[in-house]
Amino acid sequence: MVAIRLLPENDTTNGWSAVLPPRASKPRLAETVVADWAIIGAGYAGLAAARRLAEHRPGDRIVILEAGTAGEGAQGRNAGFAIDLPHNVTSSMAELDETARYKRLYRAAIDHLDGVIKAHDIDCDWAQDGRYHAAVSEGAVQSVLKPLVAELDRSAEDHRWVDRQTLADEIGTDYYAAAVFTPGGYLVNPAALSRGLADSLPDNVTLYETTPVVRFEPGAPSRLVTPEGEVKARQVVIAVNGFADRFGYFRHRLLSFAAHASLTRPLTDAEIAKLQGKARWGLTPANAFAGITMRRTADNRILVRQNVSFRPGLRADDAERSRVAVDHKRLFDQRFPGLSDVTIAHTWTGYICLSRNGAPGFGEVAPGVWASVCQNAVGMTKGTIGGLLLADKAVGVKNPLIADIEAVSGPAWIPPRPALDIGVRTRFAFELWRSRAEA
Ligand SMILES: Cc1cc2nc3c(=O)[nH]c(=O)nc-3n(C[C@H](O)[C@H](O)[C@H](O)COP(=O)(O)OP(=O)(O)OC[C@H]3O[C@@H](n4cnc5c(N)ncnc54)[C@H](O)[C@@H]3O)c2cc1C
Question: Which of 121, 256, 375, 401 is such that its CA lies 20 to 30 A from the CA of 382?
Fold first, then answer.
């Protein structure tokens, strides 16, 4: 029996859910339940696995145990990019092969999300806005954007080179030297999407919210103990991303980072007129360490995402968020000097799980225990497809994409703490310094 000593906390700072109407959460588990499948975690991976399992096994009883509420974990705190292409490319044959696999996986995830959103009329500002991948410095134009264009050309991917002036016309800032626009990705309010996915589950799936698994005993059946109840299930799906090592899986393989994002207040009509450009857009940085992710949302706010720090304890405090909010305002002002009256309305923290080699954790980790975790900060698509394929594999349904995800899976070993902390923090500091021209 494993005691789960670190549970997620909801600090109630999430800006994406703050701009939505309140939602009634599902009841917590307060009895003993016998199920065919127990899924831990109601993020993208857990909800996709539940939906696909329900399709394959309409007569099975499927339960989801979620420590918090839908849309309040990382699934609802992210920047809302459902990406169809990996952010950056390199040119070795192995890496090109990997890129092709990821493209197939991401696109299948987008198709799934698109289908569910349309079938259930989920109101979440989901739209194919595409994405600008932008560089501040001439160095990053040459070292990142030009090779990206070469690969997009080679693989006949639709894209457009965007120079400084064109980008200024399209998004309202001349801060960037250039960008590459790719049209395939979607933007969304991730909290609204997560709520919609959780509230439209098939009839044979029961979601229990505010129901953390506090003890776990794998077996036949496995036992999952919660504060007021218990589930006995033949099959278990671990879909808790960076918390998976607390269940005893992928130990010394997962790196948890705090990532922060802010939303401004909505722009006024006068500010919108000053900003000009497209009504909605999303921009990712050529350099993920120093650069910032930005969006203009459907309700005319600007999102800023920056400030990632190593947090193996998965906790951050208000003092840190206050510092980050000041920093996000500075980054916003640098890019939009004409909008300096625009204030930051929400700043929040979420947690991302990375592996040293960028690989997710996927597959059967013990008899009757399955996992789709470690989504490396692109969990909207990677987690969704991980959950779907895990369900296919667990019931023996053949899907050619299983070979793709298995080929890119397997988080690499990382050294134990405190050597790990020193190594990660040193690498981060070095990368930030090296890429300071992209800040
Ligand atoms: C600021 C920020 C920006 C990001 N931007 C993007 C982006 O633009 N696009 C993108 O694709 N990704 C982005 N990400 C990453 C993305 O949010 C994650 O990769 C994704 O949420 C992972 O999905 P998941 O389903 O695997 O896990 P999660 O969404 O983390 O869901 C796991 C769930 O498990 C629950 N859980 C954990 N422990 C227990 C327990 N003991 N019992 C019960 N439940 C438990 C948690 O409460 C949580 O709800 C961003 C993340 C952050 C923080």
Answer: 121
